[in-house]
């Protein structure tokens, strides 16, 4: 394409003006540019001659895509990459003022990506490996020319930040195990050679900024002397940008991935409160140095109300999270004093926090992180602890918990979460009363923790302020009750822990609030506002009872007395539930005690009613769940609570209370109009009640349960209606299939009770038959419907394709679909609970031969509907799973073989119909549909095959003996699945990965000859996945790969020894010899340089691989392992490799493998000890070299000249040495 044409297309793509198909066409034309042979030179021409920033942006992004595609291939020479890197620096140097921000960001990203991808590339001119030169690691020298003025220096800082981010966090192209292994080695190398010096470089600049500002304000230049009042210094635009970049650079250093795990500080799967700064030992002196903490605190006092403050506080957040093992007790106290002193001074001058939401948020994070890394007995030893804790209490009450505040913004719930987290964790430490008493026994009373004074006040203020605000504050209501009450429950979980510190006072407050609201609720004409407050209060009561497990033995009242207070709360909730139930049934609330008792303990529910108040129903269910965890089940508590319940409501024991709970749950399931949250919470509570032997034993005695066992029909519970006639509320937000999925959970709970109620012998046959009657009725109806369908097994492909046009007369296809989904979900729930031999045999006898073939025909009919075949396959997976050896049939019955035959036929139908249909119609671009329609059923099929193979209830040789193709068909399904999915999919979806590798492991143990004699392409596919699996961070995947390879190699050597090796087997071994050698090198690399936790499992296949490549092991493979190392390291590795096979025979017997495991363990220890000693010597040399570098005089003179502005001239290479020192232990091995 011509340059002008590209200019025009870029303007259309990024500038707007085109939409729809035209925009898609433009995008597709530009995407082909990256595939051109001269892409590198063309992109440089575009950058040089671009008329618009859109063309520059396109040129930069195209280069990034180009190197993403070739980063793991030698497609671009070292010279081309190095020249491009120099070109980018020159381009940024010349055009940085005129570049659009988005263009600058892409060019900086490109520079960082080039630096990372070429980190361990040696210069082509290097001949002596003892003097290693890594040109791409000398990036600090390249930034010297950017010191001329602030705009250029800002670009240099942006480059440093981008390099840190790129090296610390794996990019989208580094998702495979091999690419991630390379990323980790680069990450560790950068940490050991560059990171600390960059951090000190940034802090040196930031320190001089503060000194210059203090001088201009006439303040003391000592960092320990904070200003008495906060000020907001306004810097010139360019200088302000430099300071902001310096702070960001310091933060990037502190948030670096020190362990190379691939997780960043912002990962959502890592709790922010549990983050730990895993800095190396070399950072110790700088972490203890108090001037670093004073430096960042100073930015709050001198640059208040600017964006510099949140970044500076973020740096303090990270410094407060340094791993505890780095400091001893005295050092930790010194650091803690620096932190708390700065925090207290900020609290005393909090105007800067109240004016900026981001600053307040980061400050609260700092407080929460302080407690996460510090124990209470350490905190009370700081200077002025009473003043610190009082100041923090006042700030919490006045500015954070206050709903009607004088802040200019609404307080984020995340910000409040951090401050509540501090108080709750510091209270929870009181359970470790021994440590606390030891730390305070010898000290004066002034060192008391004082929590019993402040924490109860925080609890009371929180509850009362929210109750008052919910009357009118819609924002607060939506914040607390949106998103499934997640924020509310998080806050109340912390408040409930704090409430146990003075439980008597807390319960008195809650009872008073409840009684007042109950009176208002009965008298209110418009109960909306009161209902909001009531809902909130019930959630508070539930969390308070749920925190009963917190034992604060040093201060709290005795456990038995707490039961009495809990009883008062339970009484009030039961009374409220009675009132709600009477309102639902249209009755009138009685005021006398006996009326309440009768209403609770008798059935007043009416089928088809509508819940009176959904929010109160949900709150009551939440309360019941919290109460159950503490007082019901296998770990039940004392019975003192029933003294209170009997006094007020006449409830004598746990069984009577359980009966009330069960009736309430069944009432919810009888509503004709029901919401998603209510039905999910109801079914969840019912399932939780059925967990545990003692709970089930009590439940089956209850009349409501007995009534349900005999009457579990859709007429009694509209929720179970197969046609979904139950009306869902207007705010329903889950699909019908997701709603019906709850049926499985529901019947699993029922099944657990049946396991205890029925003995499944002749005496119970009538009862079992009566229970299964609803299922039999629906199944018989399906049998009648399917009689209208022809015999699909006789159809060819063309005839079967026209089946969709066939319409039965007895029911529509949608109705049949709903019926099938309901039955298989219900039966799957029952089957999962039937873990005894008798119960499972009873279910199978009911299924076969009457109804099991029905489900195969259902798959024929609905082969193209994922809503049908997904639950159907999951039902068969449950049916074939040998839980607790339940599949032990009578020796005179062929039930196990019949089960496998039906399962094999089902899988064959799935292979010949569903997979063919999905491959032809479902595009990969539609990720959600592709997973649901193709990958999800494939995962289930792999699990079914493994369950059949590992169940140990079928002798598969019988099928070959009698020429039954069922077992062969089952294996062919596995091969069909392999040919229908890509390796990228296999390794990208965790569930699919686990299902595949565990099945490979099982097949290698059960049918090793089947995998070993696969056709060459299929065997290569499997072996390539095994090679990738060895690089996976998942131990399960690695162990499965080890078992497969060990079993395969043992089979090869055994067959070769007996001269019975098939030709296909030896052909596979010879064809993929290079891949076997690559696996061997990867395993040895992992043992030498990585944290090999499963060395015992890895050693088994490793011996076979060495023997398989014995001729090359001590020549070619050894040279590959040694290449790229210094001569000293080569000598260590060579000696260890020579000793590896000492005393090992050339066999794969179990005894020989055990001896080799001992050798490989000793090999790893020797290597680690030798390289660790070399690393210590290198670090000592580097430290002495750094200590000899004087501070730059040019920096000091420039700082004085600019006075209040930022100094920008300093020899960067002086503070950041180039990579002329030895590479770290975890260097990338060039193969």
Automatic annotation (TrEMBL):
Signal peptide location: none
Entry GO MF terms: nuclear export signal receptor activity
Keywords: Cytoplasm, Nucleus, Protein transport, Transport
Intracellular or extracellular location(s): Cytoplasm; Nucleus
Taxonomy, superkingdom: Eukaryota
Residue span, Exportin-7/Ran-binding protein 17 TPR repeats domain: 483-726
Biological process per Gene Ontology, one example term: protein export from nucleus
Cellular component GO terms held in the UniProt record: cytoplasm; nuclear pore
Family: Belongs to the exportin family.
Name of the protein this chain belongs to: Exportin-7/Ran-binding protein 17 TPR repeats domain-containing protein
Organism from which the protein derives: Rotaria magnacalcarata
């Amino acid at each position: 394409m011509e340059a002008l044409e590209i200019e025009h297309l870029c303007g259309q793509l990024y500038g707007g003006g085109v939409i729809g198909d035209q925009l898609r066409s433009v995008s597709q034309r530009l995407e082909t540019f990256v595939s051109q042979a001269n892409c590198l030179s063309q992109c440089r021409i575009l950058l040089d001659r671009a008329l618009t920033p859109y063309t520059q942006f396109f040129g930069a992004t195209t280069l990034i895509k180009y190197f993403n595609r070739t980063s793991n291939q030698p497609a671009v020479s070292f010279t081309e990459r190095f020249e491009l890197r120099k070109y980018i620096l020159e381009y940024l140097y010349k055009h940085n003022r005129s570049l659009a921000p988005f263009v600058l960001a892409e060019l900086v990203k490109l520079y960082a990506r080039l630096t990372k991808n070429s980190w361990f590339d040696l210069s082509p001119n290097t001949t002596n490996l003892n003097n290693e030169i890594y040109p791409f690691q000398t990036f600090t020298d390249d930034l010297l020319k950017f010191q001329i003025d602030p705009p250029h220096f800002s670009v240099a800082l942006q480059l440093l930040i981008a390099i840190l981010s790129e090296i610390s966090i794996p990019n989208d192209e580094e998702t495979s195990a091999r690419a991630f292994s390379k990323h980790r080695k680069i990450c560790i190398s950068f940490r050991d050679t560059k990171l600390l010096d960059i951090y000190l470089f940034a802090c040196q600049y930031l320190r001089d900024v503060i000194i210059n500002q203090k001088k201009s304000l006439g303040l003391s230049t000592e960092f320990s002397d904070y200003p008495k009042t906060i000020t907001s210094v306004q810097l010139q635009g360019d200088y302000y940008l430099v300071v902001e970049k310096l702070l960001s650079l310091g933060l990037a250093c502190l948030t670096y991935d020190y362990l190379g795990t691939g997780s960043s500080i912002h990962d959502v799967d890592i709790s922010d409160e549990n983050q730990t700064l895993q800095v190396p030992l070399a950072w110790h002196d700088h972490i203890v140095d108090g001037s670093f903490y004073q430096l960042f605190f100073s930015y709050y006092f001198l640059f208040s109300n600017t964006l510099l403050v949140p970044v500076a506080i973020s740096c303090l957040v990270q410094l407060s999270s340094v791993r505890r093992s780095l400091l001893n007790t005295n050092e930790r106290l010194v650091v803690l004093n620096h932190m708390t002193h700065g925090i207290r001074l900020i609290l005393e001058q909090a105007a800067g926090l109240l004016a900026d939401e981001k600053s307040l948020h980061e400050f609260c994070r700092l407080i929460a992180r302080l407690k996460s890394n510090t124990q209470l007995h350490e905190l009370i030893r700081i200077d002025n602890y009473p003043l610190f804790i009082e100041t923090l209490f006042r700030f919490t009450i006045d500015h954070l918990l206050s709903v009607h505040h004088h802040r200019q913004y609404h307080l984020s719930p995340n910000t409040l979460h951090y401050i509540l987290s501090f108080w709750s964790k510091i209270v929870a430490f009181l359970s470790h009363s021994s440590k606390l008493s030891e730390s305070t026994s010898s000290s004066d009373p002034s060192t008391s923790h004082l929590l019993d004074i402040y924490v109860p006040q925080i609890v009371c203020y929180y509850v009362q302020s929210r109750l008052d605000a919910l009357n009118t504050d819609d924002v607060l209501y939506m914040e607390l009750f949106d998103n499934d009450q997640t924020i509310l429950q998080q806050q109340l979980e912390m408040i409930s822990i704090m409430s146990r510190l003075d439980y008597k006072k807390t319960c008195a407050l809650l009872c008073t609030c409840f009684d007042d609201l109950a009176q208002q609720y009965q008298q209110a004409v418009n109960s909306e506002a009161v209902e909001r407050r009531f809902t909130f209060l019930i959630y508070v009561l539930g969390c308070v009872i749920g925190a009963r497990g917190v034992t604060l033995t040093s201060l709290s009242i005795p456990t038995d007395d707490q039961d009495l207070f809990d009883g008062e709360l339970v009484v009030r909730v039961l009374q409220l539930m009675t009132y709600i139930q009477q309102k639902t049934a249209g009755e009138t609330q009685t005021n006398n005690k006996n009326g309440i008792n009768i209403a609770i303990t008798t059935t007043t529910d009416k089928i088809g009613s509508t819940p009176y108040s959904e929010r109160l129903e949900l709150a009551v269910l939440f309360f019941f769940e919290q109460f159950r965890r503490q007082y019901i089940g296998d770990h039940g508590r004392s019975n003192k609570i029933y003294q209170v319940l009997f006094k007020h409501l006449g409830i004598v024991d746990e069984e009577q209370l359980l009966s009330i709970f069960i009736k309430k749950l069944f009432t919810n399931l009888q509503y004709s109009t029901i919401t998603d949250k209510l039905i999910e919470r109801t079914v969840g509570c019912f399932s939780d009640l059925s967990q545990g032997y003692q709970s089930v034993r009590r439940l089956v005695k209850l009349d409501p349960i007995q009534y349900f066992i005999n009457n579990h029909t859709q007429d009694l519970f509209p929720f179970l209606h197969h046609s979904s006639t139950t009306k869902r509320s207007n705010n329903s937000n889950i699909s019908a299939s997701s709603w019906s999925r709850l049926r499985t959970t529901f019947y699993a709970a029922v099944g657990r009770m049946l396991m205890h109620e029925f003995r499944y012998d002749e005496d119970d046959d009538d009862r079992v038959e009566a229970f299964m009657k609803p299922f039999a009725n629906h199944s018989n109806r399906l049998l009648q419907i399917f009689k209208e369908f022809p015999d699909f097994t006789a159809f060819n492909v063309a005839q079967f394709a026209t089946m969709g046009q066939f319409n039965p007369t007895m029911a529509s296809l949608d109705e049949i679909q709903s019926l099938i989904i309901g039955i298989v979900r219900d039966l799957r729930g029952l089957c999962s609970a039937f873990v005894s031999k008798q119960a499972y045999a009873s279910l199978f006898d009911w299924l076969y031969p009457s109804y099991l073939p029905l489900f195969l025909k259902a798959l024929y009919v609905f082969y193209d509907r994922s809503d049908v075949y997904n639950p159907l396959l999951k039902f068969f997976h449950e049916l074939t799973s040998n839980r607790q050896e339940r599949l032990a049939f009578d020796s005179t019955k062929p039930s196990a073989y019949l089960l496998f035959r039906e399962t094999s036929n089902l899988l064959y139908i799935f292979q010949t119909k569903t997979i063919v249909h999905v491959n032809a119609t479902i595009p990969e671009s539609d990720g959600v549909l592709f997973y649901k329609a193709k990958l999800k059923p494939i995962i289930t099929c792999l699990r079914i095959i493994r369950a059949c193979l590992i169940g140990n209830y079928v002798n598969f040789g019988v099928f070959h003996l009698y020429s039954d193709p069922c077992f062969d068909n089952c294996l062919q399904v596995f091969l069909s699945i392999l040919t229908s999915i890509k390796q990228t999919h296999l390794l990208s979806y965790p569930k699919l990965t686990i299902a595949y590798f565990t099945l490979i492991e099982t097949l290698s143990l059960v049918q090793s000859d089947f995998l070993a004699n696969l056709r060459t392409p299929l065997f290569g596919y499997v072996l390539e996945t095994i090679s990738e699996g060895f690089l996976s961070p998942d131990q399960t995947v690695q162990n499965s790969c080890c078992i497969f390879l060990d079993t395969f190699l043992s089979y090869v050597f055994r067959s070769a020894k007996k001269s019975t090796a098939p030709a296909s087997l030896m052909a596979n071994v010879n064809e993929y010899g290079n891949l076997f050698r690559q696996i061997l090198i990867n395993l040895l690399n992992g043992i030498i340089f990585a944290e090999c936790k499963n060395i015992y499992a890895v050693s088994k296949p490793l011996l076979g691989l060495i023997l398989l490549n014995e001729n090359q092991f001590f020549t070619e493979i050894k040279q590959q392992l040694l290449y790229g190392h210094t001569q000293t390291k080569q000598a260590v590795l060579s000696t260890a490799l020579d000793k590896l096979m000492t005393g090992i025979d050339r066999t794969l017997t179990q005894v020989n493998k055990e001896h080799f495991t001992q050798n490989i363990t000793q090999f790893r220890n020797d290597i680690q000890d030798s390289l660790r000693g070399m690393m210590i010597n290198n670090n000592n040399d580097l430290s002495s070299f750094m200590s000899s570098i004087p501070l730059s005089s040019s920096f000091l003179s420039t700082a004085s000249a600019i006075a209040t502005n930022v100094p920008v001239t300093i020899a960067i290479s002086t503070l950041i040495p180039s990579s002329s020192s030895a590479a770290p232990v975890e260097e990338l091995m060039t193969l």
